[in-house]
Amino acid sequence: MSARKQLLLKKHRRAKRITLLVALLALLLAGVIVAWWLVPLLLVLGWVAHEAWFADHLFYRGSDDYQYVFPEDVETQVVSIVAGQVRLSAGLAEGETLVLAVRVRHSWLGRWLDPFVEVGDDRQDFERGVAGVRYLNLSGQRERLASGELTLRGRRCRLTAQAVLHVMRSPDYSRQRTLILAPHADDAELAAFGFYSRCAEVAIVTLTQGEIEAEAYQRMGLTKAAAARLKGRLRSWDSLAVPLWGGVRPSHCVQLGYYCLQLPAMAAQPELAFGSRESGESDIRSVRQHNPLMLPADQDGAPTWHNLVADLTALLEHYRPEVVITPHPELDPHGDHVATTQAIFQAIARSSSKPATALLYANHLHDNDRWPMGPAGMGIALPPAIEPLPADRLWSPLLSDAQQLDKAMALGMQHDLQGPLPFKRRLRRWIQRWFAGRRWPASGENEFFRKAVRRHELFWVRRIGS
């Protein structure tokens, strides 16, 4: 977790403690002045209200504008929203990725139920209490937009009569040789299953075993270290086997075997070896036996930053990608994700193979743990960017219903996304279903089945070297 994410979470928890303390004092006062039985009743009602409406981790205000800047060559025009239909002010420029910046304001009901915008046959949700500039993803709606048939209708919210349309043109990157960097097993599927399942030449490299937080395996009678080793083996297997569901051959899947949550420490001290926090292991060769080629770190098995960069350099020269897909270093706060992108950029600087383009993804956010908001199967609006990001182009390819189903099944094969929800989280979902109108897909209980299985995938396009 990044320092900024930790600071936001610390402020959130402090504000919540102060609010709870004030509420407790008010309850005690009500019990003394009115009747004692009000205290337990109001405690239960207050807890239900918290779980229904105040349990989300949103570390910004609904009135904050999202701060996006796009490259200067991106075509823009002002459009009007008249009787729920989008009217262009000029001809529609060439480009398949369409983003509409529009001011959204909640209705009174939008403070208690999730506000959303119907975009033709799509739906894109926003924060309760939204009252700022948001970015709708109109990708896939080009024909309707050009013909004046695209409808936008706010539900539990209102849209301003004018908006700004950004049109971004990119090649179909799935036709180019691609190397996908996954910090952990399942990151490639979450971010890019639709992409890689139609990519003719793609390789997937997973950096870590993902062995920590293995309490579920301790229930089988294993020690903490043995449970972590088993989880590391299982997730390493997932990283090699699951991509075959999307058509990626085993000869194009590599597991590097470094240890979960240790990549930032490795980057800070490149010559030191950082073994697992929980499994007791310090030799990364324990999960490399199925790799299709020998790599530099196979000589000593040491989990060092120097070995990681050397491994990635060798993989670049072996697969010679034109595109690399890697976590967004400014948007995704997970320490292993930030370090993954740092490592691949260092490897590119050393390698004789120079990819031209990086496609960046975000499986986690600083500011909002629910993004993409709304139900599975819908579109992906742009995530909160409360602080300005680099001026990257966007590329948002579409997934058919069949591809979305295959993506959900691929996630279901990942051991870390299996298993029942804890009782507290299951109870919270039941409360939110009945009081806040939220729904979760039948494909899996983990939150990523809702967040990742969508009609869009979303990438930030960055020219390497720029």
From TrEMBL:
<dbReference type="Pfam" id="PF02585">
    <property type="entry name" value="PIG-L"/>
</dbReference>
<keyword id="KW-0472">Membrane</keyword>
<dbReference type="InterPro" id="IPR024078">
    <property type="entry name" value="LmbE-like_dom_sf"/>
</dbReference>
<feature type="transmembrane region" description="Helical">
    <location>
        <begin position="20"/>
        <end position="49"/>
    </location>
</feature>
<keyword id="KW-0812">Transmembrane</keyword>
<keyword id="KW-1133">Transmembrane helix</keyword>
<protein>
    <submittedName>
        <fullName>PIG-L family deacetylase</fullName>
    </submittedName>
</protein>
<dbReference type="InterPro" id="IPR003737">
    <property type="entry name" value="GlcNAc_PI_deacetylase-related"/>
</dbReference>
